[in-house]
Input
Amino acid sequence: MAAKFYFLMLIFFWSTRLFCLPDDIKAPIKVVSDRAEKNEKEGTITYEGSVVVRQGSIKINADKVTIITDAVKGDRIVSKGKPARYQQIHNTQDGLVLASANTINYFLKSERIGLIQDASLEQNGTTITGDKIDYDLQAEIVKASSRENTKQRIEMVIPPTK
Output
């Protein structure tokens, strides 16, 4: 069963060839919210109330977003909502990547996304859901899991080929 899952994951990511648009990383981060609080000592900025974050083709919608500046681990954006949503165009051929979860951790330096609780990831009609999804954009690897002691399982839907 595990071999079949990994085979399906390989097909999914081989077919999507995930690379972000070159301008995304170079673009400034723009945030719109109802409230904001900057903590210089901790290196954080917290936004609350219908938050929208944009950087190039990247768009995040959440109830609360915290941008954390960390010289050692790299900057990251923590988004929380019911659910929080992330979208990005990785290249013009593969189209939009859509992700949602109650917590989304976006690690800018390492180009990784962590989706926690009621997680979902979709591209080109292929969807994977679970309690936790770790998505490495550079390595093109997705790892999905369920919480221990629950009966929730990972679900993947692959559309028929055209």
